[in-house]
Structures are given as C-alpha cells and as structure tokens.
Write a structure and sequence with these properties.
Elements (H helix, E strand, L loop, with lengths): L19 H17 L5 H22 L3 H12 L3 E2 L4 H16 L7 E5 L7 E3 L5 E5 L8 H9 L10 H31 L1 H6 L5 H9 L7 H9 L8 H16 L21 H11 L14
Parallel strand pairs: 1-2, 2-4
Antiparallel strand pairs: 3-4
Helix pairs in contact: 2-4, 3-4, 6-8, 6-10
Bound molecules: zinc ion.
The site of zinc ion has 4 residues, from helix 6 and helix 10.
Length: about 300
C-alpha cells in the first residue's frame, strides 16, 4: 500500500496545523449560516473544521514540492500522465486525492492536466475518455475558503478543500461503471440478433446513451427536492452530479484529518442509519437506471 502511494510532500508537518484565527473566522460565519442553510449537517461542520486543519498542513507541505517530480511519480506509480503547469498546490491536491482513490480501490482517471476551461468551470471529467482537466483560471492556492462558502450556501455537498478533485474522480469512477454496463448490453443485443443483423439494425450506442442520460437534467419533483436537502443544490442538477457530489461528501466525511486518507471505506461499510432514499438513488445511478429521474425529451 505504502509503496504505491505518492508522497509529494517531503514532510507534512502537523506542527502548528491549528490556526486559531481561521477557526475563529469559520465559527463566526458558521453562526450565521446555521440559520441561513437549514440543510447544513453536524457532519458537514466537523468535516469543515477538520479540513481547515488539514489544509494548513497541506499549504506548508505544498510549498516544498516540485510539481514535475509529482508528475513523474504519478506516471511511474499509477501510469497516469499528469501535467500541472508547475502549480504546486494543484499537484499536491491531485496526489492527495489519487492516494484516497487508490486506497478505496477505485478506478483512476486516465490523464490529468491543468488547462483552459470556460470561465466559472473549475474542472471537468470527459465522458469520452475519463481524462480530467483542472482550470488554469482557478487560483488553486486558495481553495479552502471558497469550498466552505459553497457548502455554507448549499451549492455543494462538502466544504472539504479536496472536494473538486474528489468530485471529478467520482465522475470518472461512475463513467467507467456505465461503460462497463453499456458493453454488456451491447454484447447481449449482439448475441440476440447475431453480429451481422445487429449491424444492419444499428444497435443503439449504449455508451453514449447512458452518458447522455446521466447528464440529463433532473425533472422537477421529489427526487430533486430531496437531493437539494440532503446532498447539494449542484447535485440536484443531474444524476451524474448527484453521484459525484454525494460521493465527494461520503469520502470527505471519512477522512482522517492528519493522514488525509479514509478511515474506512464509506461505500462498503454502509451505515444502516443512512438515508435509504439517497442510497436507492446511488444504486440506481450506479446501475444506469436514470429514466424515472430525468426529463423526458432528452432521455431517448
Ligand atoms: Zn461534476
């Protein structure tokens, strides 16, 4: 386990990780947002408090790294081409997130880079090849504050500073799963009609179809309202976003604040007191069952 993980930071020092001023400011905002956002949960708050401490250690560690070395390590140990454009903070964040996914035994993205994206888009994961791009317009050296504010506003599901890479890597995990399902569907159809006939009949492109369904807006209704209350506003836009944002929250809530690794696998040891409706949706989205949740016109 140890040998395959990346250690970009020669030493993450937890000496002085506690920043009294930052915590004080956080608590001040918290007082207000506890009233303004009724969906802010106790776990969200403790995850944010822990994240502030992890983030202080992260900032010190990030200063000492060489992004090119990190790129080489990621390629050597995980086979993933990575280009950070000399951004120390992004390189550190990505390697921490990769270590988390490696520990959870999840499929990893196929490539990672920093590049130009539309203004307002922080990162994307391609449905075609599961490559992840982080925006070159974003200031990656100052991510904790904005993540907390976005959770406070209920736009996102967690205020952890690693939310963006974890959210994107969850998209990649989901896409890999949907591709697998599409492949099985294709084979079953081919066997049913025979290869030649199925070419003539043109079997639908299941891969594209499933990716499209996952990315189709939710229809107005119970599921959407429920996601707003229990995941996030952004998660309530599309099934793929619900999956990625809920996953990001589950992972962030499981992290040890010193090692920044999951204390347990939140997807295996499911807490039985956990929300049944959310779990049902996650299962449906994992199995490619989107139709009853999404708007009609684009679903076929
Ligand atoms: Zn997303």
């Amino acid at each position: 386990m140890k040998s395959s993980s990346i250690s970009p930071q020669s030493a993450v020092s937890f000496k002085g990780y506690y920043d009294a001023d930052k915590i004080k400011l956080f608590e001040k905002y918290l007082e207000y947002y506890k009233r303004a956002n009724p969906y802010l949960k106790k776990t969200d708050i403790s995850t944010m408090r822990n994240s502030i401490s992890s983030y202080n250690a992260f900032l010190k560690g990030a200063e000492t790294i060489n992004p090119v070395n990190v790129e080489n390590q990621i390629y050597k140990k995980m086979g993933i081409p990575a280009h950070f454009d000399n951004d120390k903070h992004l390189a550190s964040m990505v390697s921490l997130a990769l270590n988390i996914f490696k520990k959870l035994n999840f499929v990893l993205p196929t490539s990672i880079k920093k590049g130009p994206l539309e203004y307002g888009t922080r990162a994307i994961c391609s449905t075609k090849d599961r490559s992840v791009i982080f925006s070159s317009l974003e200031d990656w050296s100052n991510t904790q504050e904005s993540q907390i504010m976005e959770r406070f506003e209920n736009h996102t599901s967690t205020g952890h500073f690693l939310r963006t890479p974890i959210h994107e890597f969850m998209h990649s995990v989901h896409i890999a799963q949907l591709n697998k399902l599409a492949y099985i569907k294709e084979k079953v159809t081919e066997n049913a009609y025979g290869k030649w006939l199925s070419m003539v009949l043109k079997i639908p492109d299941f891969k594209t179809e499933m990716a499209n369904d996952a990315g189709t807006p939710f229809k107005e209704g119970n599921a959407m309202q429920y996601i707003i209350q229990h995941v996030s506003g952004y998660g309530a836009t599309r099934p793929c976003e619900m999956f990625a944002d809920k996953g990001a929250q589950m992972i962030a809530d499981s992290l040890d604040f010193k090692t920044i690794l999951p204390k347990h696998n939140p997807f295996v040891f499911k807490n039985f007191t956990e929300d049944k409706y959310i779990n049902k949706m996650l299962d449906d989205f994992w199995m490619g069952n989107f139709s009853k949740y999404i708007q009609e016109e684009k679903s076929k």
